[in-house]
Design brief:
2 copies of one chain form a homodimer.
Chain A lengths: L6 H24 L6 H8 L13 H26 L7 H18 L1 H8 L13 H4 L1 H15 L13 H11 L5 H22 L10 H15 L19
The first copy, chain A, binds a DNA duplex (33 and 33 nucleotides) through helix 1 and helix 2.
Chain lengths: 245, 245
DNA sequence: TGTACATCAGTGAACGCGCGTTCACTGATGTAC
DNA sequence: TGTACATCAGTGAACGCGCGTTCACTGATGTAC
């Protein structure tokens, strides 16, 4: 069942991948709105109607690209977390490592980034399939916070009264084991992180910022502190001390 | 010269405005990529070629819409600054007032917002005319900082060594009278502010955040503090110690 | 004030293009007996 | 192992559509004398 059954099946997988690869190329050249089944088929040496054996419509191809893009950036974030030192290490540095990895991916794949974090494609509504993959980066950030929380590397920020109910609601939804104040701060930091990336990818920093990596790194570190992450050496007893970058 | 000269001239102004209004309507319905001269003309009861008396091409119409959008959000920010109390008032609150005004405008005009702060329109490169209007919101933020600086309401944040040259370069470009550390923090805060707005406008907060205005207000206040703005009453002698919200 | 001319907004037809999608088909790959 | 049948990837033609832009034109508005 789960093994590859024959030439037909293998060919199907390969052609599907080739279609998506070519579509990604065209995405990079012309943007999502101009993605055309006919152009993809043409470039692949197929006739346009043949694509309908693989994707029932243009929107389905777009959906597949969106799911893949969320998957790629999610995998990038997860890999960065895995290579960012032990889970008791200097937490702001781990956070910054993940943030920088996401930023690097975005700069390397600007059109795929725009597909998922830019203005929504007109007339296209994302189906349910995209919800899961869309949350992977967020889950990584939550995971970092949890690591810090479990190793006493988290200083819970104060929580203003009027925001408390919403913070509790979000915490119940996203991470019931974490303090609501931290979850609220995390959601805000999450949006702000992507704000920095989007401004860079979408050109808002043109003629304004030059040393963009330095500015980003610094801002990412400050965001880490804003959600309560503490530098390693603060946690003495259970052996976490390590100087941050 | 500067007075309205006759029916022809007045008609030209009115028709130009009608074209842009209709184009904005279609923008809201279908997005920038699908903006079509023919559809605009059709809706206006004109023949499509007639639009060429007003805009030499589709791209020029798009450019006009972009310039208008920057102008609208810029004017909104300027108006908010003007009504946000005296220039010596509680600075974080003034900052939050401007931030909220920009957010309100974005939520009221999501497609115009997407036009200027979303993914770039494929195949379209913004001409020089857009650079000036694009900086108005930024100038308002700089103005707020300057007000605080001149009334001793600004605590200059520390500036990490490696970022110093870039901070000095940006300060020389954007606001030579302000401390480089503040300018660097401001640029980051600027991007983060729009990150919060974009996540909300573009739907990233769907199924995650409900009390979006509260979260935004809170985050905007914290951004104000991150650039060094101090609450009003704290400025006693040299204006340093101040309890955050 | 009246006439001759210039300006220019808007018309209508046309050009050439690329698009998404459907449909009946061919022929190769896979399957059941 | 060989044969008959089912599956399905890919073809090629066609449908109907909307687009940006050009061009020669008509007729109203404005201007110079």
């Amino acid at each position: 069942m789960s093994t590859i059954r024959g030439a037909r099946e293998r060919a199907r997988i390969e052609v599907t991948a080739a279609i998506k690869d070519e579509a990604r190329k065209q995405l990079a050249a012309d943007g999502a709105a101009k993605l055309s089944l006919r152009a993809v088929a043409r470039e692949l040496g197929m006739v346009s109607s043949a694509l309908y054996r693989y994707f029932p419509s243009r929107d389905d191809l777009l959906t597949a690209l969106i799911v893949d893009a969320y998957g790629a950036v999610g995998a990038t974030a997860e890999a960065a977390r895995a290579t960012a030192g032990g889970s008791t290490g200097p937490h702001p540095a781990r956070w910054a490592t993940v943030a920088c990895a996401v930023r690097d991916w975005a700069l390397a794949h600007p059109h795929e980034y725009a597909l998922i974090y830019g203005s929504p494609v007109p007339g296209y509504t994302a189906p349910q399939d995209t919800i899961g993959p869309a949350s992977r980066v967020g889950l990584v950030l939550i995971g970092l916070i949890r690591d810090a929380f479990l190793s006493d590397g988290l200083a819970v920020p104060p929580l203003a009264g009027e925001l408390r109910p919403e913070a509790e609601r979000m915490a119940a939804d996203l991470a019931p084991d974490l303090p609501p104040a931290v979850v609220a701060a995390l959601v805000a930091a999450w949006a702000q992180l992507f704000g920095l990336i989007s401004f860079e990818v979408f050109g808002q920093f043109n003629r304004v910022v030059e040393a963009r990596d330095l500015l980003f790194r610094r801002a990412a570190h400050e965001l880490a502190h804003s959600v309560g992450l503490l530098d390693g050496q603060a946690a003495v007893a259970d052996g976490a001390s390590s100087a941050g970058s």
